[in-house]
C-alpha cells in the first residue's frame, strides 16, 4: 500500500460498512468470502467491492475469494481501527448519557473515558461506569488520559466555545452531535452527526412528487 | 419545476444544510442573501450553491441575491418539509427516549406521537409528554394516527421483525438507528443513522498514515 492513497468519502462509508459485515462473518467463523457473496449480503455490486478493495491494497487472487482476517486487518489499518482511541463526551444530557451507555464503541477500540458537564447535580454521577466530571477539569483530563476524540453533545450557543477548549487542549478529532457547524484548524478532523439533515433526507426520499416521475 | 427532477444524495445533504442556514438567517430577520454570503457562512463555493439552487428551481436574477422566503419555501417543497410527518419510535430505551426528548423535530413538522416497547415497566410512562405504548397496539395506532415515519431504536436481533410490522401497517418511511441494515419493499424509504460508520469515518480522517502524504 502507498502512503499517499486517498479515497472518496463515499468509499470510506462503504469501507466502514464492509468492516461491519466482515466482523459479523468473523463471529460466525467464516474464513473466506467472495465479492459475490459479500455483494449479495450488502446489496452492492461485486465489481464495486473488488474496486474498493483494490483501492486500498492487494488481497487474494481472482476466483479464490478473500481471506477474512487479512481483509479485516487491512481495512482496519486503512480506517485507523487497529489502535485504541480514547474518547470523552462534552455535555452529559440525554444524548451524552445515551452514548456512554452504548458498549459498542468500547468493543471496537473507542472507549469513552469520561463525560463533562457544568451541572452540579450531574457531576460525580456514573453512567455505565463512566464518571461525569466538572468541565473545569477538562483540559488537565485530556492531557493526562491520552484522549484523542471529543464528542460534542452540547447546546448550540456554547458549541464553538467547547470546540475551542478541545482544540486548545490538543484534541485532533471531534465527533459533533450538536446540530451546528464548528470551526477548527486544518489539523483537527470533524465528523458531524446531524439528525435533522438525516431526517430531511428521509423526507425527500418519501416525497413522491420528485421521486416517482 | 419539473416533476421528474432528481438530484444526487450529496446534493440532498447540501440542500438540507442550506435549509438549516436559511432558517437561521430568517430568525435574524434577514430577507435577501447572496450566494457569496451563504457560501462564506457555509464554507461552500458560491458557484456550487447557484448550481444547486438551479437544479431545483429558478430563483432571482444574477447579482440581485436570493429572497429568503422564496428560497425556504422552494427547498422545503423539494425536501417535502412543508407538511407534517407524524412519527413513532420503536424501542423506548436510552436512544428512543433521547429522540423523544428532543423538541427540534416537532418544530420542523416531524412530531413524535408515541413510543412503543414491550417492557411493562416502561409502558404508560410519558417522555416529554409522549406516551410509551405496548407494542401490541402498534398496528392500530399507526392506522388511526396517520403515522408516516417509524423510527427504529431496537436491538439487532428484532430489527427486521419490527421493520416487517411497520411495513405491514403501511409505514412508508423508516429512520433506522439500529446499526443493522434492513430489507424493505421498493416503495418504503429508509434512512440509516449508523454511529459506528460515522465514528470509523472520523477515525479514517484522523489516520495520518493516509491523510498526510
From TrEMBL, chains A, B:
Keywords for this protein: Cytoplasm, DNA-binding, NAD, Repressor, Transcription, Transcription regulation
Pfam families, per the entry: CoA_binding (PF02629), Put_DNA-bind_N (PF06971)
Keyword match Ion transport: no
PANTHER family per the UniProt record, alphabetical: REDOX-SENSING TRANSCRIPTIONAL REPRESSOR REX, REDOX-SENSING TRANSCRIPTIONAL REPRESSOR REX 1
Function: Modulates transcription in response to changes in cellular NADH/NAD(+) redox state.
Family from the record: Belongs to the transcriptional regulatory Rex family.
Quaternary structure annotation from Swiss-Prot or TrEMBL: Homodimer.
Identification of the protein by name: Redox-sensing transcriptional repressor Rex
Name of encoding gene: rex
Amino acid at each position: 500500500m502507498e502512503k499517499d492513497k486517498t479515497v472518496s468519502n463515499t468509499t470510506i462509508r462503504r469501507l466502514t460498512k464492509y468492516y461491519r459485515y466482515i466482523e459479523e462473518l468473523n463471529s460466525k467463523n467464516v474464513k473466506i468470502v467472495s465479492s459475490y457473496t459479500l455483494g449479495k449480503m450488502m446489496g452492492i455490486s461485486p465489481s464495486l467491492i473488488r474496486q474498493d478493495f483494490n483501492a486500498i491494497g492487494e488481497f487474494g487472487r481472482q476466483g479464490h475469494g478473500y481471506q477474512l482476517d487479512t481483509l479485516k486487518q487491512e481495512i482496519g489499518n486503512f480506517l485507523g481501527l487497529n489502535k485504541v482511541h480514547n474518547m470523552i463526551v462534552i455535555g452529559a444530557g440525554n444524548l451524552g448519557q445515551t452514548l456512554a451507555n452504548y458498549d459498542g464503541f468500547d468493543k471496537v477500540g473507542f472507549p469513552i473515558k469520561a463525560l463533562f458537564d457544568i451541572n452540579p447535580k450531574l457531576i460525580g454521577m456514573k453512567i455505565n461506569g463512566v464518571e461525569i466530571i466538572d468541565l473545569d477539569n477538562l483540559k488537565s483530563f485530556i492531557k493526562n488520559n491520552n484522549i484523542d476524540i471529543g464528542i460534542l453533545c452540547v447546546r448550540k450557543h456554547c458549541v464553538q466555545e467547547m470546540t475551542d477548549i478541545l482544540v486548545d487542549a490538543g484534541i485532533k478529532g471531534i465527533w459533533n452531535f450538536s446540530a451546528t457547524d464548528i470551526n477548527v484548524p486544518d489539523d483537527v478532523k470533524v465528523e458531524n452527526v446531524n439528525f435533522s439533515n438525516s431526517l430531511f433526507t428521509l423526507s425527500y426520499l418519501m416525497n413522491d412528487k420528485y421521486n416517482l416521475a
